[in-house]
């Protein structure tokens, strides 16, 4: 049983858009609100994208570049703090984190597909 759970989690980390699909469909069936389903899907997939990109960098280059992901996250927080501070006078940590989390989904999605493309091409040329 533990092997099945481990294989399921490994699959979700390897292909994080399965999480997006499952959460999106589940929330939409429960609430009938498409925007809420999309937001829940992106929020849950972002965590798996962090893990997937970290694993992909280890597979491609043999070492983890997790510190770059953390710097991207902190940079996004600083960026949104500055933008919200200039626009509004009221800083809300939850608003900053929510906006940054969704920005990270966009950045990590681009990184995920870039790493898949790079990994496939490099494996073809190595073979």
UniProtKB/TrEMBL annotation:
The chain crosses the membrane at residues 6-24, 65-85, 105-125. It comes from the Bacteria. Keywords: Membrane, Transmembrane, Transmembrane helix. It holds the Pfam family DUF3397. This is DUF3397 domain-containing protein. It comes from Fictibacillus barbaricus.
